[in-house]
Specification:
The complex is a heterodimer of chains A (about 55) and B (about 160). Chain A is rod-shaped and about 70 Å long. Chain A is built from 2 helices and no strands. With about 55 residues, chain A is mainly α. Chain B is an alpha+beta fold and about 160 residues long. Chain B has 2 domains: about 30 residues; about 120 residues, Cupredoxins -  blue copper proteins (Immunoglobulin-like). In chain B, the strands form 2 sheets. In chain B, strands 1, 2, 3, 5 and 8 form a 5-stranded mixed β-sheet that branches. A 5-stranded mixed β-sheet of chain B has the order 4-10-9-6-7, with no helix packed on it. In chain B, a hairpin with a 5-residue loop joins β6 and β7. The chains are: A mainly alpha (about 55), B alpha+beta (about 160). At the A-B interface, α2 of A face α1 of B.
C-alpha cells in the first residue's frame, strides 16, 4: 500500500519537474519586456552621463 | 528545462557578466577615484593650515593641462567658498576635502558628484562650456544642517579662457 503511494508521489514529482508541456509564452514575453525596460533605463542614464561629460 | 527558461537564464547570466565588467572598468577609469587609486591624503585636523584650503576658491593652475584649480572645503554645515565664478570654456580641476565628517559634493546638472571625506582630497576635472548657474549640494547626510548646506557655481563669460 505504501509502496504504491510512493510510486504515485514520485510520478507527481516527475510531472512537476517536467516543464516541457507548460505554456510559457506569456512568462517569456514578460521576462523579455522587463529585461528590455532595464536595458533602456540603463542606456538612458548612460546617455545622460555622456552628454554631461 | 523549458526552451524559454534556457533563453532567459542565459540572457540574465550574460547581462550580469557584462554589467560586472562595465562596473570593474568604470571603477578605475573615467575620473573615478577609488581608495586604491593613489588618492591624495591630508590631515583633517590641520586642513585650514594647508595653503590650498586656508583660502579655498578658484586659483590659476600651475601644472597639468587644466586652466584652473578650484579648492572647496566642505564642513558642517557650509561650503567654502559660498559662491564661485568660473570663466566659460575653462577646464577646472575641483579639489574637495572635509575637516570634520563625511560630506557630499554634487554640482547639479553636471557629472561632478564626489564624496568629501576627512583625510582625503577628492578631485574631478571638468570643462564648463555653457554659461549658467549650478547649485552645489551635499548629498551625504552629515547632520542637522545638512539640508542647508549649499554653494553656487556660476559659469560666466570672460576670464583667461576667453581672452
Amino acid at each position: 500500500m505504501s509502496e504504491e503511494r510512493d510510486k504515485i508521489k514520485k510520478e507527481e514529482k516527475r510531472n512537476e519537474d517536467n516543464h516541457h508541456k507548460l505554456d510559457l509564452r506569456g512568462t517569456f514575453m514578460m521576462v523579455m519586456a522587463i529585461g528590455g525596460l532595464m536595458l533602456l533605463s540603463w542606456f538612458g542614464a548612460f546617455i545622460l552621463f555622456m552628454e554631461r561629460m | 528545462m523549458h526552451k524559454y527558461e534556457k533563453i532567459w537564464i542565459s540572457l540574465g547570466t550574460a547581462s550580469l557578466a557584462v554589467f560586472l565588467i562595465i562596473l570593474g572598468i568604470s571603477a578605475v577609469h573615467g575620473g573615478h577615484t577609488p581608495a586604491a587609486s593613489g588618492i591624495e591624503t591630508i590631515n583633517p585636523e590641520h586642513v585650514r593650515e594647508d595653503a590650498r584650503f586656508s583660502e579655498p576658491g578658484l586659483k590659476e593652475a600651475t601644472d597639468g593641462d587644466h586652466d584652473y584649480d578650484l579648492y572647496f572645503l566642505a564642513s558642517a554645515f557650509m561650503y567654502e567658498p559660498g559662491e564661485v565664478e568660473i570663466p566659460a570654456g575653462s577646464t577646472v580641476k575641483i579639489h574637495v576635502t572635509s575637516p570634520d565628517v563625511v560630506h557630499g559634493f554634487q554640482v547639479v546638472g553636471t557629472n561632478v558628484n564626489m564624496i568629501a571625506e576627512p583625510g582625503l582630497i577628492s578631485t574631478y576635472e571638468m570643462t564648463f562650456d555653457e554659461p549658467g548657474e549650478h547649485l552645489i549640494v551635499c548629498n551625504e547626510y552629515c547632520g542637522i544642517g545638512h539640508t542647508d548646506m549649499t554653494s553656487t557655481l556660476k559659469v560666466v563669460n570672460g576670464g583667461i579662457a576667453n581672452e
